[in-house]
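Request: Could I get any protein with tokenized structure?
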Amino acid sequence: MRLIPAIDIIDGKCVRLSKGDYGTKKVYNENPLEVAKEFEAHGIQYLHLVDLDGAKSKHIVNHKVLETIASKTSLQIDFGGGLKSDEDLHIAFESGAHQITGGSIAVKDQETFLGWLENYGPEKIILGADANNEKVAVSGWQEESEMELIPFVQKYQSNGIQYVICTDISKDGMLQGPSFQLYKKILSQTKKGLNLIASGGISTFDELPKLAEIGCEGTIIGKAIYEGNISLTQLEHYILENG
């Protein structure tokens, strides 16, 4: 299972929110590149980079941060937050994103999102399936849609999606453990071969092997690293042991 630390960006700084609430913002580092380099120094190969300013303003904002990290580290970056147009996508890939995550757009403008999937291929496009009470949430989690989570994932899988990041918003940033049951349910009700990336609520190192056992292809770890609940040395050992 891939370990994917998260860096969330507001005003060019590395921050974390709780349950997607901008009012709970906590700045952890003024310099996201420093954080990314520290991840890389511990053998980490992947990064989940979220443009929270972009999510709020509905277009890409912090692409310079993406460009800096992509050009100064070897991390494979998946980038999301506010990607709404072909131009946004072009900027993200030009700035060094390895993959992009589309969430709100996959709900509100399916035609554009499917166009991206067709043009860039399923290795490059991740479906952001963020949910509250198994209903898909959009607009930086400020809105809940009427769309049911599992049919939403099933529909896009039948259209060729291979990668899905699923965040249970009620767990995000709360350090109370991830939604094991939800991930089991998704994997049991979708076709084989779905690369499900768990996100939200990771609080202790012991949860990681459990997510791997369920069948998650990757897991995104945010606040647990920044608050010191999980050390980068632990992640480094996990990567070495599991190849």
Notes: The chain has a mean pLDDT of 93. Residues 150 and 198 are 14 Å apart (CA to CA).
